[in-house]
Design goal:
With 196 residues, the protein is of the alpha/beta class. Helix content is 35%, strand content 18%. It contains six helices and seven strands; from the N terminus they run H-H-E-E-E-H-H-E-H-E-E-H-E. The protein has helices at 12-25, 30-35, 79-90, 99-114, 124-136, 174-181, and strands spanning 43-48, 52-57, 63-67, 117-122, 139-143, 161-165, 187-189. The protein has a seven-stranded mixed sheet, with helices on both faces. Strand 1 and strand 2 (52-57) form a beta hairpin. Helix 4 (99-114) crosses helix 5. The model is unreliable at 1-10 and 181-185 (pLDDT under 50).
Length: 196
């Protein structure tokens, strides 16, 4: 696959748009989260599942695959499966992170249908989004990406990755703190926007 390089680091508005998409996917009613914010009203949900949603930005027709990370509160009843995926990341055992293959199939289907998509995720799903991005040559905008302390990674592995972190060393999410503090990813420290 041809790698499409990032033209620029996403602008401030886009960064918060993707943060809002990541917030919405954890909710039982993601559209209500999007509709509650002026920046979210420009997104139309095209497809939704327990583990992902596909949205279209109505202003520029960009298709985004939004992946759900670990559902600790078990809002969607997936906590046990999510935690198994997390352990796989921590142990650097890609076979345990079976969701990567599932979501890669979805991404390939979307690429056939729309030709150009991007992908976003948080923590567990940031890890998966990075893998999908690398394998398919599409852009990934991720937040607090999951990473293994066993295998150090770097941005050279995926030039299409933009990794934002809100981790400042006190985060209790063990799979995302590694990427923020140990790996050599080009990481952009951001402060959460309470108005997303």
């Amino acid at each position: 696959n041809e790698i499409r390089g990032l033209e620029t680091i996403p602008d401030e508005n886009r960064k918060y748009d993707y943060a809002l998409l990541n917030k919405a996917i954890y909710n039982r009613n993601p559209q209500s989260v999007l509709d509650s914010s002026p920046r979210g009203k420009k997104y139309k949900i095209l497809e939704i599942d327990l583990k992902f949603m596909v949205v279209e930005n109505k202003t520029n027709e960009q298709i985004t695959l939004v992946l759900r990370g670990t559902d600790i509160k078990d809002v969607k009843g997936q906590r046990k499966d999510d935690l198994i995926q997390d352990v796989g990341i921590l142990l650097n055992n890609e076979d345990m992170v079976s969701r990567t293959k599932e979501m890669d199939i979805i991404a390939k289907r979307l690429l056939e249908e729309y030709d150009d998509i991007d992908v976003t995720g948080h923590s567990l799903s940031g890890y998966i989004a990075n893998k999908i991005s690398k394998d398919n040559g599409i852009e990934a905008i991720v937040f607090n990406m999951g990473s293994s302390p066993i295998k150090k990674s770097s941005i050279e592995e995926n030039p299409n990755l933009v990794h934002y972190t809100t981790n400042v060393g006190t985060n209790i999410d063990p799979i995302s703190i590694t990427a923020a503090r140990v790996d050599n990813f080009k990481t952009i420290q951001v402060e959460p926007d309470q108005d997303i």
